[in-house]
Structures are given as C-alpha cells and as structure tokens.
Amino acid sequence: MRFGGSDAARHAGDLVELPVVSDKYWMAGTSGALVGGAPVRLAARAAILDTGTTLVTCSGADARAINSEAARRAICCADWCGC
Question: Any signal peptide, and if so, which residues (predicted)?
C-alpha cells in the first residue's frame, strides 16, 4: 500500500504489488515467509496485510516452521517462542 510514494531510506529491497483476494480486507495470497533472509515454506493461504500492528497469527504448523528457522539462525525472543 502506497500513499504519496515511498522513502527508499525506510525500507530495503523493491516494493511489489500484490493482487488482493478479498474485498473486505487488504488480503493477499501467501505460501511462505522470510526469516533472517531464509525462505520458510508455509501452507498456502490468504494473509491479512496490516502495516499498523505487530500481531501475527498463524497455524501451529506454520508457527513451528517459523520458530524453527528463527532458532536455527539465533533470531529469537524467548518471551514468545521459548527457544
């Protein structure tokens, strides 16, 4: 989502446009995530894109895959994932 352009000093990499899959939410299809730059394959599903929150919810299997990669790369917050 861009309003009035973007500031390259505030992000790394290119911005991409995604088609929305719902007319009620900013929702796009997804099948993976990057953890410390490493790809993590997740179940294909729709994701709500909300730039104003730090809340992330997902299935237990997806959470374990993300946390496993974070622990492998020593990227962790023990308050949430217990690694």
Answer: none
Residues pairing with 28 in the sheet: 47
Cα–Cα nearest to 45, from 34, 56, 58: 58
**Domains: count for the chain:** 1
Give the domain extent around 51: 17-81
* Of residues 17, 42, 14, the one with CA closest to residue 30: 42
For the chain, where are the E strands, in sequence order? 27-35, 38-48
State how far Cα 77 lies from the chain centre.
16
Q: How far apart are CA 5 and CA 7, in angstroms?
A: 7
Is 38 among the domain residues? yes
Residue written as token pair 């973007």? 6
Task: Judge whether 60 lies within some domain.
Answer: yes
- For 11-27, the pLDDT digits (tens) are 888 888 888 888 888 88
